[in-house]
Amino acid sequence: MAEEKKIPYKIYLEEKEMPTAWYNLRADMKNKPAPLLNPGTRKPMKQEELEQVFCRELAAQELDDETAYIPIPEEIRNFYRMYRPSPLVRAYCLEEKLQTPAKIYYKFEGNNTSGSHKLNSAIAQAYYAKKQGLKGVTTETGAGQWGTALSMACAYLELDCRVYMVKVSYEQKPFRREVMRTYGATVTPSPSGETEAGRAILKKHPGTTGSLGCAISEAVEAAASREGYRYVLGSVLNQVLLHQSVIGLETKTAMDKYGIVPDVIIGCAGGGSNLGGLISPFMGEKIRGEKDYRIIGVEPASCPSLTRGRFAYDFCDTGMVTPLAKMYTLGNNFIPSPNHAGGLRYHGMSPVISQLYHDGLMEAVSVEQSAVFEAAELFARVEGILPAPESSHAIRVAMDEALRCKETGEEKTILFGLTGTGYFDMVAYEKYNDGRMTDEIPGQEELERGFATIPRL
Amino acid sequence: MAEEKKIPYKIYLEEKEMPTAWYNLRADMKNKPAPLLNPGTRKPMKQEELEQVFCRELAAQELDDETAYIPIPEEIRNFYRMYRPSPLVRAYCLEEKLQTPAKIYYKFEGNNTSGSHKLNSAIAQAYYAKKQGLKGVTTETGAGQWGTALSMACAYLELDCRVYMVKVSYEQKPFRREVMRTYGATVTPSPSGETEAGRAILKKHPGTTGSLGCAISEAVEAAASREGYRYVLGSVLNQVLLHQSVIGLETKTAMDKYGIVPDVIIGCAGGGSNLGGLISPFMGEKIRGEKDYRIIGVEPASCPSLTRGRFAYDFCDTGMVTPLAKMYTLGNNFIPSPNHAGGLRYHGMSPVISQLYHDGLMEAVSVEQSAVFEAAELFARVEGILPAPESSHAIRVAMDEALRCKETGEEKTILFGLTGTGYFDMVAYEKYNDGRMTDEIPGQEELERGFATIPRL
Q1: Is residue B457 part of a domain?
Q2: Minimum distance, in Å, between the CA of residue A195 and any CA atom of chain B
Q3: Which residues of B touch A115 (CB under 8 A)?
Q4: What's A116's DSSP letter?
Q5: Which residue in the set B12, B82, B179 is minimally distant from A426, CB to CB?
Q6: Among A437, B117, B285, B387, which is least packed, fewest CB within 10 Å?
Q7: Edge-to-edge, what's the strand order for the sheet holding A363-367?
Q8: How do residues A185-240 score in pLDDT, each as one tens digit?
Q9: A209 and A340 housed in the same domain
Q10: pLDDT tens-digit series, residues B62-104
Q11: Which domain holds residue B376?
């Protein structure tokens, strides 16, 4: 106990201890993630093909399976200094509340105006777009965190920013739209009548509340139809996981500094950006056989790509205009129940995470949203941070793990990623506070309908 | 320049460098703030009289003009460790954007779920109430930050919390209400039909959008009519400024550590809690003749208590049920235009701040809200933090000062308090983004109507 007292509530690294290079886990993976395929030729995408969608350096990062460390440009490091290093928090109050012998830590990425970790990749993607002399970028956003993050990065670099926002979020979160507008972005609810992809989806599913898959189709089309624009994406891609490695690298440095070794590492998983970033240096050690960790991805039961999806090549979007990625997928046409409150609505999963999961290097569990909000409320009350619904998926599983330790008496060290805050999710919290939240899990028939849209190669 | 580079973007103290005692500026003031008067007898309130409204230890702190340092109980220090020390930020990006030779620093108090500095006093007040064995507390909230902070503190200590929320904020900020509910508080829009004070105000001003003064009357009445409840207040009082000294103490320690001496210290002023807390150790040095600083309080032109009010004894509330305080006041009946978007809506001002201002130890300026939001937007874009409208009053004046330095070439060091974030103020930002924000300054006649309600002693 005496030794433990030395660990502060929050471990902040000094600025000079911040990473100067991103870590590219792919370099250490024995089975590399499968390459993206050209949707026309069904052949692996080449650099020059990717450059039609993404800007040059990002296309290179997307394809680079070899370089373990990629230097972070100084301009990006300076931006990081405005809100990083983020704290690694010892959840003393949660431990006390749960009366668990487990030691719980969380890496908190919500202390910035975008409210999440998404800013780590937004600034990188905006920086490379600016460097290439582009005028602007287009993107989609689901819960709104990525759109906000990209708006902030673009405002900082004076780039134009056009965001297609999943309609259900646009309606539930009018204030998210205003934050993006304050940062100078144009925000359009998706599906919209502005693009061919949007019009096609509206025709096929009138009254749809949208999905990330639809919004991606629209954003990709919008970029392609404008001179000097490229599309950027907040999750799923290899490049995004690369940028998000800053989360894991900081966590590892902070833990090493205090001699802390996690037994279990838990992260929520929508497209996989936070999970991939958080686990990267730990997974690297695990793959290299240096250490062993139990690693768990947590997804919503209403959008269970890892736990109930298929490992197959699928389109990243609903409109089937993007490259094909080999990933765990529910089918590009799968749209979670509008009853589902949080983010993590994506039909697929990062190819890196998918490969790691397929190779048995990590586990996945799905949780129901009422249990997630119950954990969120308890966490808010004892730890003083109102968490994002997405992040609360990880809280739920971390708490369950800590409660198991209470039964067994094990003093496990649990690390989880607290990706963001729920300040713009109060409609969902209201539903929970009013006792109106229910759980809706897709039946096998519904899943089969989704699977039917996975292309046969 | 080389020496400057050593100063990081954010200075975080270590936990062991956090203050262990609050600093009571009154102990060093030559002219003490005038005592509160009993509203019936018009004689100075005694400890036992104050205890009918406030809990015991807080009543003692309210009256203590002698003790310079009051230890912070360990339980409160542990709570502080969940979100403090707060960062002292060097605004490199803002300096660059303004092309000013000035060095700008801000103490950022928004990195907690209440979104402001209010939590510093909320936990202290809730702690003493709990310690006294009370069941719960009642309070008012304007912009909603104080109510949120108190809800969080009460949830942590398992105390009941009843909040009267100024109606205009209740309507503009439905999500604030949900945050408070998530923390288990009961929230009532004020004026309400629940209290005599509320009913009287509604009768006199049907359709009023409320004011802090009305909400205080209701909260005081609600506490008095319930067994085991006391009233707590988020600003104005001596005890609140005492707790908020933690802001200034951390700032001073951080600045001393890097050899930084501010020339100008700027804080927004509603009831005076942030301003009083930020300036306290600096003002102490100034009063003791050890150092000189220029100190500026910034208030909205639509609620200009320091710059256009009278220095007189007045009720702290509109219903005239509270003790009388000697302060700069616009009259207890003064209600700012509903057009006014931010907080800082209080008719009076902390007696400590009022006395310091009266004694010429500090300056005050008022600013119009369109200029405030212009500064807020620029700040958000370059510094990456979307500020609360209240805090943006200080940003406006800090920017003006930095722009003056640009003209004169002076390399002044400017320190300001960034009290919180604007995530629940997007209705106001929307108004600004849509070009619908106007400035409405009370005419002399309107002020006279307010002054007429100041009692003659």
Answers
A1: no
A2: 26
A3: 423
A4: B
A5: B179
A6: B285
A7: A10-11, A88-90, A103-108, A413-418, A264-268, A294-300, A363-367
A8: 999 999 999 999 999 999 998 998 888 888 999 999 999 999 999 999 999 999 99
A9: no
A10: 999 999 999 999 999 999 999 999 999 999 999 999 999 999 9
A11: 4-18+84-115+238-451
